[in-house]
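Weekly modeling sync, notes
Attendees: AB, CL, MP (scribe)

Item 1: holo prediction request
CL wants a bound-state model with zinc ion before deciding which constructs to order. AB pointed out that an apo prediction alone won't tell us much about the pocket. Agreed to run with the ligand included and paste results into these notes for async review.

Input as submitted:
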Amino acid sequence: MTIDLHTHSTASDGTVPPAAIPALAREAGLEVVALTDHDTLAGLAAAGRAAREAGVEFVPGVEISCRIDEVEVHLLGYFVDPGHRPLTDELELIRLDRSNRAVRMVHRCREFGADITIEQVRAIAGTAAIGRPHVAAALVAAGVVAQPAEAFTDRWIGDGGRADVPKHVLTAERAIGLVRAAGGAAVLAHPRSFKRRAEVTDAQFAELVVAGLAGIEVDHPEHEPTVRSALRHLATELGVLATGSSDFHGDRKPVRLGEFTTPREVLAALRAAQVAAGSAA
Ligand code: AMP
Ligand code: ZN
Ligand code: FE
Ligand code: FE
């Protein structure tokens, strides 16, 4: 069974509509696919329906922006109840902040000579939760940079870059608590990505496990093989699951759907963790 547990659609910063993800997953030879858009559950219903039509098993998910101390991390929440108000309210706050932050980032870009507008960035984002990839696309359209990757540098909107504005986000502990209260299972996404400024340390992982973390995303395109084996070892030591996924973003990233996958027994254990969390809440 081939399982990809981390993908993005046009509901956040992917380029494929939610309803088109399951058919693509099937073409890629996957039997199970999760949709995990940034800070929104908006694509889940459409993707779930399309999955039934395509004969692909669907795992509903979300990738929540949060932080450990002042460093941003991403928490994957699987099988969350889309009607759980504390979770949906918090996601709405994050999206509101994303929208305000985009205005400020555009302002800073303009101060550094980039002729882009917030209207243009909003048009690129459409109904999606607005993010830096949309600002990057506007910078490309304006001829400021040749490629989106060039926008993610210190010159522009890379982490801590001169035009970057950090998100105001909840702590990872609180995000884990919300996922569990919403009946879901929490997995920390790409914790040692080479794109990150700071790694999530072993000690920080131990604290997250106390807070209820069910798994670590071990196999990911931004983890080198040595990082993967260290994380796999750590997951075993901490008694949590090791997942794998592509973090597919359509045309926005070079990775293929299904390039990294999760073993069947790990998905089964995630499901069991979800049930346990749901009944404890
Ligand atoms: P945001 O959530 O608005 O802070 O934007 C983060 C998104 O930008 C994530 O989907 C990242 O994968 C993407 N991103 C971060 N760094 C890069 C990069 N160097 N090239 C392309 N996309 C990136
Ligand atoms: Zn993304
Ligand atoms: Fe992420
Ligand atoms: Fe992601």
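Recorded for review: The first strand starts at residue 3 and ends at 4.
Action items: CL to compare against the apo run; MP to circulate these notes.
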